[in-house]
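Thread: quick sanity check before group meeting

JM: Hey all, I'm pulling together slides for Thursday and realized we never actually wrote out the predicted structure for the chain we discussed last week. Dropping the sequence here so it's in one place. If anyone has concerns about the input, flag it before I start.
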Amino acid sequence: MEPTTDLLERPLPASPAASDLAAAVEGLTTLLRTLPLRPAISLTAASTLRTLDHDGPLRLSDLAVRERVTQPAMTQLVTRLERDGLAERRADPLDARVVLVGITAGGAALLRERRAARTAQLDGLIATLPAADRERILAATPALLRLAEAAPAAG
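JM (edit): ok, ran it. Output follows.
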């Protein structure tokens, strides 16, 4: 039997820097999740809209895999997003038998509004830090964005 390489099945040793970064990102994730935003939508709905905005229209099954939810759960979520005018189902231009889910202009606007609100709140929190910390955060931002983009696709 071959040894497993699945990160979820066995812990890998982490460097102190990676451990500190993981703790910082987990803390920031909690902070960002708990900032009050209007309109309030679920984290899964917000993530799904972001995926559609970033990656374009996707098959419902592919969207479920990327968001790590079951296909029935994604079907229900897309139905709610459609009802709210944030997403839409459309025929695939390359294969009319295939249905794609895409973000609507309203969904994209909602993402922009939520990001602007979150940015303003985060900006206020950053302003409370010492100048040296603010400079370090700003200097690290491009590398953190590249790290976020380097994450392997789900599935």
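AS: nice. The CA atoms of residues 48 and 63 lie 8 Å apart. The chain has a mean pLDDT of 88.
JM: adding both to the slides.
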